[in-house]
Amino acid sequence: MSGKGSGLPFGIDFGGTGIKGAPVDLEKGEFAQDRVRIDTPHPSTPDAVAEVFAELLGKFESSDGPVGVTVPGVVVKGVVHSAANIDKHWIGEDVDQLITAKTGRDVHVVNDADAAGLAEVRYGAAEGHRGLVIVTTLGTGIGSALVYDGVLVPNSELGHLEVDGHDAERRAASSVREREDLSWHDWAKRLTTYYRKLEQLFSPELFVVGGGVSKKADQFLPLIDIETQIVAAKLRNAAGIVGAALYATEARE
Ligand code: BGC
Q1: For the packed helices 112-123 and 239-252, what is the interaxial angle rounded to 10 degrees?
Q2: What distance in angstroms lies between residue 3's CA and the mean position of ligand 1's atoms?
Q3: Of residues 58, 57, 81, the one with CA closest to residue 69
Q4: How far apart are CA 62 and CA 65, in angstroms?
Q5: Which of 148, 156, 145, 17 shows the shortest CA–CA distance to 82?
Q6: SS3 for 180?
């Protein structure tokens, strides 16, 4: 089939409320067509979610391009090893295989923050940056991507660092700010503690802050008191889809 979508890699961003996808133009780091969103099914078991992935792909013309899928958990060789904020049935599931079988496409699953990190370093706020860049996503949990000289060290899971006796994401994720109705100032204090810990352990050259709340970066980034440069992500909610498509393309190669 000819047309805009064929052969292009496709990215799917699997989140707690929505599953979003689009074919991606990797030259530009942009969607090649408007993205489509479908509500995340409940319960969000791997089978139910894989059905939605197939439905989503069916809304675009057929293509033989690889499909990248983000999952908010540790993914090693296509198998999910953790599920902090999603249905526990994902643990131990070979999702590359399951979703490939359901969709008939060449599927490569990647941690959600790793996908965002790849996209930000290739096309966004850390474009062309050498040395160690740490991309964190502040959302329901805290995701992290460690990227050194443009190469991803996958599954860093720095949202689960223990800080002051707490799992960091349970103190400083964006969902915690909302739930506890923290002021920007009070949230920034918690983020300062968190990023100082990361600084102490990793001495990165740059932090990039993603997740939905990065739209409001001017409200809280200037209040985070650390030495390292810290900037807002640029790709915003496109980062997962673009990063997943990039990951799948590189994994296929
Ligand atoms: C998960 C990570 C994920 C992050 C953001 C954490 O709870 O352990 O794998 O990247 O949430 O979704």
Answers
A1: 90
A2: 36
A3: 57
A4: 9
A5: 156
A6: coil
- Please give the share of the chain, as a percent, with pLDDT higher than 90: 91
In the reported structure, the alpha carbon of residue 169 is separated from the centroid of ligand 1 by a whole-number distance in angstroms of 9
Query: Could you tell me the domains of the chain?
Result: 3-111+238-252 (3.30.420.40), 125-233 (3.30.420.40)
- For the stretch 159-210, pLDDT in tens is 999 999 999 999 999 999 999 999 999 999 999 999 999 999 999 999 999 9
Q: How close is the Cα of 114 to the center of ligand 1, in Å? A: 10
At 6, the pLDDT band (50, 70, 90 cuts) reads low
Measured CA distances, 163 to 1, 19, 101 (Å): 53, 31, 41
- 1 alpha carbon, distance to own chain's centre: 31
Residue in 137, 167, 170 to alter for ligand 1 test, most ligand atoms within 8 A of Cβ: 137
CA geometry: angle 229, 129, 250, nearest 5 deg: 130
Interval 92-120: pLDDT, tens: 999 999 999 999 999 999 999 999 999 99
Per 3-state DSSP, the chain is made up of helix, strand and coil in percentages (nearest 5) of 40, 25, 35
Q: Is 42 exposed, middle or buried (0-12, 13-18, 19+ CB in 10 A)?
A: exposed
Helix 46-58 to helix 95-103 angle, to the nearest 10 degrees?
40
Ligand 1 atom with least separation from CA of 169: 7
CA atoms in the 13 A half-sphere facing the CB of 5 = 19
Residues in the chain, total: 253
